[in-house]
Amino acid sequence: MKIAIVGLGRMGMNMARRLLQHGHQVVAFNRSADKVRQIESEGAIGAASLEDVVKKLEGPRVVWLMLPAGRIVDEHVTALADLLEEGDIVVDGGNSYYKDDIKHAEELELKGIRYMDAGVSGGIWGLKIGYCTMVGGARDVYEHLEPVLKSLAPVEGYLYCGPTGAGHFVKMVHNGIEYGMMAAYAEGFEIMSASDYGTGFDFEKISHLWNQGSVIRSWLLELAEDAFKDDSDMSKLSGWVEDSGEGRWTLQQAIETGVPAPVIAASLFQRFRSRQDDPFSNRVLAALRNKFGGHAVKKS
Prior knowledge:
The chain is an alpha/beta fold. Helix content is 52%, strand content 13%.
């Protein structure tokens, strides 16, 4: 299949490579031309603009966006609405909010352009092992895209999840779960580190051990093993932890539907706390303990 990949970041570039490796024709466009030249050298057809992307595709055209969620995706969808023709297909493979998918689909439908949302998980390892892909939109368009999805994903690694927004909705919840899992692993390693046994523990080996048949084995533990191999006590890193939005959206959905999600909530708030230096709330707590009980405080 001939397909355009717009956005050659860490995910988009490797997705283009994986498609090329599986015999697809890839038209590639990125805001910075150096990345376009790089993937051209690997067999892709470079494009200098969105207009150029459209010219280098044949109908029904497939344009797969791998862009940061929000305004940038909005701008590209609006631009493509004026450039593409009836029957063409736009796929948003980034981490967009599922309610934005509904808006984008309605905007493109006015021009007869089909829209699909694809939640993609795999990170920088996807080129080698494939991308788990969660797809929303019309089933007939999903079936048209299936050769591409099959090439991108590992065996049994893609799924039609339902109508517009369903793919990104499933990916949103996936990422919320991911927040909680990572927080639990981090807390467990800290409990071990703070114990009387802590100085004798080899966390690289413990991570490896837990992946040998234990009930908490996972790919995240494989990554933990690699991380401890690189930095056994994590002394090279700051404790600052960013969030990219999906955890917040998952909690918003939980609130809207009245579903308790204490683990995901705590893991998101833990990330907020990681970005604070001596937070105001902790100083208020210290002051209150001092006032009601005369407990000792440390002066700044």
